[in-house]
Design brief:
This protein has two domains: about 260 residues, Jelly Rolls; about 70 residues, no CATH class. Strands 1, 2, 4, 5, 8, 15, 16, 17 and 19 form a nine-stranded antiparallel beta sheet that branches. Strands 3, 6, 7, 9, 10, 11, 12 and 18 form an eight-stranded antiparallel beta sheet that branches. Strands 13-14 form a two-stranded antiparallel sheet. β4 and β5 form a beta hairpin. The protein is rod-shaped. The chain contains four helices and 21 strands. It is an alpha+beta fold. InterPro entries: ConA-like_dom_sf, Kinase-like_dom_sf, Legume_lectin_dom, Leguminous_Lectin. This is non-specific serine/threonine protein kinase. In the C-terminal section; belongs to the protein kinase superfamily. Ser/Thr protein kinase family. In the N-terminal section; belongs to the leguminous lectin family. Keywords: ATP-binding, Glycoprotein, Kinase, Lectin, Membrane, Nucleotide-binding, Receptor, Serine/threonine-protein kinase, Signal, Transferase, Transmembrane, Transmembrane helix.
């Protein structure tokens, strides 16, 4: 019986190992390499597609969407202590018909609540409204990926990353991009390019330093962060528990914002995302031309040119066939012979009915010339 029991235990262990989903969760961390079967708190336009994409907006104008982790996290060990260190990373992409006129981006946020029903869409990104923007009672920390320039918030451009505290006026911001580890040069990235990118947000509870890093997918996290500021998040998150999630909105332009993966760690690095399990993005924009057309088009053009050329040659040959050959003496004394064309018409195409006889020099036809 013991060998049989061991075999059964081994079978159960094998089943458990190979039935692990694409996400793992614990009290202090989680990782979602795609969102199939994930239970998130969603509102507005936000939804999870059948293949596991977290879609924050669906292209409908002037609406908002939110997605939160289903349970809040203890950011303070005790009510009177400061906010602990944490790290977040996520993979996103943004689709716009034209990147220059897009709105309004994605914000990762940590807030005392997950109810933002009073927040507005468009430039407010589902985080605030015209009355409470910047109020200390909002109690949220956010990292915005902003694809629209709003002068009322002193935005630097329409393609930037910013750190927001209780409102949309960023305390620090930078054009979207990354610093090369070798040269140190800055490389621009276009947020609404519909290319997958990865963001890292890290907070050191001891030094109160916030680092935000951005890079294309498949690139290792750059050493130098895009943004680095010192801010005590304990001044924003006043309770020991807080909600984490994403907010997004649309304005006057069509935009679709997606999150493909997300991980979080408290007092530890965010667990690595398995990019091999990321869900596929839907096809957006005009369909690419078929390669068959690229092959058929030049062949059809060449065939058409050959047909047209052949017709022109036949017409020219027909003209030459009926052309009248004049000798020098005919120019001075007038024609003493008729063109083949005139004879052909006069005899109605040399019909047998017009045949008068056959002599030593050929056949003789009667014909009637048109009156000049």
């Amino acid at each position: 019986m013991k060998p049989l029991l061991c075999l059964m235990n081994l079978h159960v262990l094998f089943f458990l190992v190979f039935s692990i989903p694409s996400f793992a969760n614990s009290k202090h961390q989680f990782v979602y390499s795609g969102f199939p079967g994930v239970n998130l708190t969603l509102d507005g336009m936000a939804s999870i597609t059948p293949n596991g994409l977290l879609q924050l907006t669906n292209g409908t104008l002037r609406l908002k969407g939110h997605a939160f982790h289903p349970t809040p996290f203890h950011f303070r060990k005790k009510p009177n202590e400061t906010v602990q260190s944490f790290a977040v990373t996520y993979v996103f992409t943004i689709y716009c018909i034209q990147s220059a006129i897009c709105g309004h981006g994605i914000a990762f946020l940590i807030a005392a609540r997950n109810n933002f029903s009073d927040a507005l869409q468009a430039q407010y990104m589902g985080l605030a409204n015209g009355y409470n923007n910047g109020n200390a009672t909002n109690n949220f920390f956010a990292v915005e990926l902003d694809t629209n320039k709003n002068d009322e918030f002193n935005d630097i451009n329409n393609n930037h990353v910013g750190v927001d505290i209780d409102g949309l006026n960023s305390v620090n911001s930078s054009s979207a991009g990354y610093y090369d580890d070798n040269s140190g040069n800055f490389h621009n990235l276009t947020l609404p390019s519909y290319k997958m990118m990865q963001v890292w947000v890290e907070y050191d509870g001891g030094t109160t330093q916030v680092n935000v890093t951005l890079a294309p997918l498949n690139m290792a996290k750059p050493i130098k962060p895009l943004l680095s500021i010192t801010y005590n998040i304990s001044r924003v998150l006043l309770t020991d528990k807080a909600c984490i999630g994403f907010s997004s909105s649309t304005g006057s332009f069509i935009a679709r914002q997606y999150v493909l993966a997300w991980s979080f760690g408290m007092n530890k690095p965010a667990p690595p995302i398995d990019i091999t399990k990321l869900p596929k993005l839907p096809r957006e924009g005009p369909r690419p031309q078929s390669k068959v057309l690229d092959i058929v088009r030049p062949i059809a053009t060449a065939a058409f040119a050959i047909v047209v050329g052949t017709i022109l040659i036949l017409l020219i040959r027909r003209q030459l066939r009926y052309a009248e050959l004049r000798e020098d003496w005919e120019v001075e004394f007038g024609p003493h012979r008729f063109s083949y064309k005139d004879l052909f018409r006069a005899t109605e195409g040399f019909k047998n009915e017009n045949l008068l006889g056959i002599g030593g020099f050929g056949r003789v036809y009667k014909g009637v010339l048109p009156i000049s």
